[in-house]
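Shipment paperwork, digital attachment
Item: protein structure file
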Amino acid sequence: MMRIERVSNWEDVARLAPEWNRLARGIPFLTWEWLGAWWRHYGAGGPEARASELLVAAVYDATAPGASDELIALAPWYVERKAPRGAIVRFLGSGDVCSDYLTVLSAAGREPEVAAALAGWLIALRKENAGGSPLAWDRLEFGGIADDDETMGRLLEQLSLRGAIVDRRQAEHCWRVELPNRWEEYLAGLSKSHRKQLRRFQRRLFASGRAVLRTAATEQEFRQAFEILVDLHRRRRESLGDRGCFHSGRFTEFHREVAWQFFERGLLRLSWLELDSRPVACEYQLLGGNTVYAYQSGIDPAALEEEPGRLATMATLRAAIESGCGVYDLLRGDEAYKAHWRARPYPCSDIRVLPGRGADWLRHGVWVARENLRSWVKAPWPWTSAVGSADTLAAVGADR
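Attachment content:
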């Protein structure tokens, strides 16, 4: 028997932090540190605070009479209310900060029953609180959900069985490099030209001492490295004609806070590459289980002829292998450089769910038609070859 409790008070949610992290199973973007900081900066403390409220669903196993219920799952959601679209349920961590692998946190092996319980709860919540009640919802919108996510797959199936309208659209892939035990073994799997280039970098730059990768190990080094990251990322994006994500003060302060929390827990690698004693690249990476998550980077646009992004990726990949990590995750985005590093794509989807009322079918039909039109407009012209598109991506990611 499952019992679901809606937790909407921030202090009550904070008390769940230890169990929250247990259920996150090492994925940084699902941890209390990441999602709690997100709510403070983008929810409760953001400009949309008045329109947003927590909708954290805590799922308890209540099968043992007389015993305290065991928390076996958490759905870390919030509701955003915007006219005329109504009440939209999303995951904490959605939007600007690009949190990957968002999902319902479930104990291993309990996914089927958790999904069924949550689906029933959501449909009942919609029916019992229709007519403008604060608990009513008009749609679920989940972005970048991994296609192999069992809990989400089962939840969508259960919602569909209960009459909800479920739409899945292909999103950008996540990309992961499966790491061998030795650097030379990894090199052997690359193309001959790429392998030759990296060995030349090793001899000419790293072995000579011209290129040095430094990783923050103290609070002072953390602060130094974070400022290097922000500066290099801003300058690189400005050189490409846009302001970049760190132009936003809210984005910067969110990451300053969350990166420090991961640093204190030993789950952050904030590294900068020095070339001839000058910082030319910085890598912001999170650790979880045996995986390195390469979240953000910055490079010096004045040093592009030395390929600082490629040098930094080479150095951090090698460091990951030598520290015993099994996966180097380049996260979401279909940039061409990722395959160049022997990363494999993992499909993701954007998901939209409507409760299934009569008017929902009309709304869904209009939305599908609009999305299909957008896809048609964005599609390449017949004379634009796939090779041309890949070359464009490669040019964007060439400095990696």
